[in-house]
Amino acid sequence: MNLTISGHHLEVTPALRSYVTTKLDRITRHFEQVVDIKVLLTVEKQKEKERRQRAECRIHVKGNDLFAESAHHDLYAALDELVDKLDRQVGRHKTRLQDHHCDAPKRVM
């Protein structure tokens, strides 16, 4: 699994990097077929203070790409919200991959 964490108008500190990796471990625990994860953390220059910190994540899994974004006034809260969204998407993707069809009962003659 490749993990890329980048910042836009923001320096990615080692504490922030470790927080992101521990949060994303939850997703890889639920679904092992993750190929690539790209995380973009940005600080927007808006006049209002709320929803200024943004976190975006694109996950490439076998057969599909999942994308989620979150904005909050605190970057850590935005990351928590982002991981919750991604966890729901990965759960839906995992249930779609599972075969829900059962074999028809055999006819007794």
Fold and architecture overview:
InterPro entries: HPF/YfiA_ribosome-assoc, RHF-like, RHF/RaiA. It comes from Ramlibacter cellulosilyticus. Associates exclusively with 100S ribosomes, which are dimers of 70S ribosomes. By secondary structure, the chain is an alpha+beta fold. Helix content is 37%, strand content 32%. It contains two helices and four strands. It has a four-stranded mixed beta sheet with strand order 1-2-3-4, covered by helices on one side. Helix 1 (14-30) runs parallel beside helix 2 (75-97). It is elongated, with a radius of gyration of 18 Å. The termini are far apart. The mean pLDDT is 87.
What share of the residues lie within helices? 25-40%
Arithmetic mean of pLDDT: 87
Distance between the termini: 53 Å
Strand line-up across the major sheet: 1-2-3-4
Structural class designation: alpha+beta
What is the beta-strand fraction?
25-35%
Low-confidence runs of at least 5 consecutive residues = none
Determine the oligomeric state from the structure.
Answer: single chain
Number of helices: 2
Radius of gyration, CA atoms, in whole angstroms? 18 Å
Count of DSSP E strands? Answer: 4
- Major β-sheet profile: 4 strands, mixed
Order of helices and strands, N to C? Answer: EHEEEH
| Shape label | elongated
